[in-house]
Amino acid sequence: MTEHSHLPADDFTWLEEIHGPEPLGWVRRQNARTEAKLVDDGFRDLEQDILAVLDSEDRIPSVTKRGNHYYNFWRDKQNPRGLWRRTSWESYQSDDPEWQVLLDVDALAAAEGTDWVFAGSLFLRPEDGVSYRRALLRLSPDGSDAATLREFDVEERAFVPGGFEIPVAKSRCSWRDEDTLLLGTDFGPGSMTASSYPRTSRILRRGRPLAEAEPYFEVPEEHMLGQAVHDPTPGYERDLAVDVIDFFNYRTYLRRDGEWLPIDVPTDVEVSLHRQWLTLRPQTDWQQPGETYPAGSLLVIGLEDFLAGSRGFTVLFRPEDSTSLQFWSWTRNYLLLNLLQDVSSRILVLDPAAGWAAEELDACPPLHAVEAYAVDEEDGDDYWLVATGFLTPSTLSRGTIGATAAEVKQSPSFFDAAAYNVEQHFAVSADGTKVPYFQVGPKDLEYDGGNPTLLAGYGGFEVSRTPAYSGVTGRAWLQQRDSAGRGGVYVLANIRGGGEYGPGWHRAALQANRHRAYEDFAAVAQDLARRGVASRERLGCSGGSNGGLLVGNMLASYPELFGAVSCGVPLLDMARYTQLSAGYSWIAEYGDPADPEQWEFIRTFSPYHLVEAGTDYPDALIWTATSDDRVGPVQARKMAARMQKLGVENVWFHEALEGGHAGASDNRQAARLQALSHTFLWRALTG
To answer: Could you tell me which residue ranges the Peptidase S9 prolyl oligopeptidase catalytic domain spans (predicted)?
Structure first.
């Protein structure tokens, strides 16, 4: 995008040089100012208390089954960058599993002089489906989304000499066979989209340089991403490709007879394949002859029947006003549907052999989040069941379809949950929509407006915010005490833009209707005041990424509602966001400021352009990370600099020099970040 005369002038573009000496000098001065304000003995005590939660050796080691082994990535005090390791099922069930360490990331970082951050593994499926040996490991040099891919042998516990090694980039990769990758990466000029992701997938054969990778699939530069993948399911081996036009529009292709055959559905219908089945989820109402399939429904049909022209879909799920489908997972013979009903979980088990008959799992207490998904979709009908609540430490159970799941692991408790209650309330937004929110607070809560209250939310990209146990929130907020002995109240708002009620809830706050998400959040804040939970002076809010844009708008447009704002890794400059980092990929969510007509509505939620001198703004902490290559640090920098130039003295800035979009590459950095945010908010709200 080029500069356009309809966009406002910007005095702070000099801060957009991410690694420039002048901007980094400004960052260091701001960091010193913020740390001088916040870092003292009390801060250090809280930081260590949070770190003890993050480093706890009693937390559940989440695992992924590959063959006969269960793989886990683990960080703790002794291994801050982490261990990639595996164990057997028998050992995993014990209180003290015996782990075989495959890769010590701290040792690798020390040996190679690079602060590697482990970002996952991609296994080659062996012919027998059991003897997994080769994997591509994703390693980021700084916690950013860009990473190298390196081939690893889990039996030798070493990188493969002369094996596949892809330079650092935002790559997308799939094993086609032992000697072939389907690879999208930065092959040079013209190979990446305007959104900074691969626009080509190429066939890379073992021993060949990147320059000799053979073209296979390609999408236009203005699209978000192009990717080809190989499905290795025995009996259903096939290549697929997807043209990701934007966040909500796709076109999926199947390789047949040397050509890419499109799956002929509208681009806003999500497509997935499992063995012989094609499942489809429309994001808007989909009209077909004789029937309309509502947004958020789930349809299934035999793939070959569909390709032959049949449209005899079976409706597996039809949304209701209060119930939405969040995701689905196949075991070998069954389909698990994970639903939300007024933001509490429900799970259905569908049996295709019995005409898709459905049974509900009796595993979901009210006001809790429970997820069910396959242990190994190729190896039987076992499923994991993960349950959590604001006051309920997470439990991991394992079951087989048709039998009751048995608990395998439980997370420890990090605070005294018996002293607190969880409630759900509904605020009424400006247009009359009822907006749910959760309130976690002391059982003896006084409704006089004097409770230090933290309101959190997100409201974008159809992401649902659900109940979840957090030892950090418990220790850093609920258990804190002000001078009168009052503890904190934590509130989670389920505003539009999210996915709590399906794609309609999300689309209600897209682009020109973005204001609805902010009106919803403001309505929750007003409801908390109406109910006597917190007055303005005692109410703070926090959010990150799109949630940073949310609370940035609270700061700029609703300053009268809040006493403090913690705004993390945020979008804030909506005039230039498409030119910064991966911002171009979010046009479908926010709109395109290069279009003068769209800028007219975008400017109404661009906090960078809405702040004005002489306004009574709440205390604000704006934080980010230098290595964030998704949103990038520059919008946060510019917002703080502009507010300070306007004479707003109570705005503070902090930038971690590593850590990517999460703001932290290890538990120590995460603990410091959480301590900064919580300490800032607590002191601002309690004095």
So the answer is: 484-685
